[in-house]
Amino acid sequence: MSFDNELPAGVALTSLDKFMGLNRKASVWPVTMGLACCAIEMMATGTPRFDISRFGMEVFRASPRHADLMIVSGRVSWKMAPIIRNAYDAMPEPKWVISMGACASSGGVFNNYAVVQGCDHVVPVDVYLPGCPPRPEALIHAIMVLWDQIHYRTPITQKERLEIARKAEKAALEATPTSQMKGLLA
Q1: 37 assigned ligand-binding residue
Q2: Residues 6 or more apart from 24 whose CB is under 8 A from it?
Q3: Which helix (H) or strand (E) holds 100?
């Protein structure tokens, strides 16, 4: 038997990434970020009827420093946006965000100066959960979708995250301003 042959590149690290993804998936801790009516449905997922404790997530953390999942539920006002961003920045890496409800995802029926038209303007969103308000079963499904992302995604470093943010900012600055766009309403 010859040991001259080496393992194909990335075999050991791929197995380690899968193992780490499984560990991350099994220990997701959400932070309390209920902003409006969708928060009632988010709280309902913790009741015995829907039993989010079967996923090990029954305790919503009061401090973002002890959580790695932010569920933004409800409309986000411009006054609340910096607070949400500060809470997101206080969370340890890796961290994930679920945008729960139509208001958090796109501003919902509140198309005015006071409401952010989607929390993705404030924090990066991993899973969008539509509905007004979405049922607790839908939130559980969104958590399971997030679990698949956590399990199969390789973690990125802070340097890679900053490079992605830099490219996104450059693309946004080079984009045509909305005021100059011509379309169906022109």
Answers
A1: yes
A2: 68, 94, 150, 151
A3: strand 96-100
Per-residue confidence band for 186, with pLDDT thresholds at 50, 70 and 90: very low
- List strands edge to edge, sheet with 127-129: 30-31, 69-73, 96-100, 127-129
Tokens 């607790």 locate to 136
Is 38 marked within a binding site?
yes
* Residues paired with residue 30 on neighbouring β-strands, in sequence order: 69
The residues pairing with 34 across neighbouring beta strands, listed in sequence order, are: 73
- Whether residue 103 is annotated as binding a ligand: the answer is yes
Cα separation, 93 vs 50, whole angstroms: 28
Query: Please, are residues 153 and 146 in contact by the beta-carbon 8 Å criterion?
Result: no
Residue 59's identity, in one-letter code, is V
pLDDT in tens, 91-149: 888 888 899 988 888 888 888 888 888 888 888 888 999 888 889 899 989 988 888 88
Answer yes or no: pTM beyond 0.85.
no
Average pLDDT over residues 58-80: 86
Q: Is the pLDDT of residue 48 over 60?
A: yes
Q: Following DSSP, what letter does each residue of 4-57 receive, concatenated?
A: -SPPPTTHHHHHHHHHHHHHHHTT--EE--B-STHHHHHHHTTSTTT-GGGGT-
Instruction: Say whether 119 counts as a known binding-site residue.
Output: no
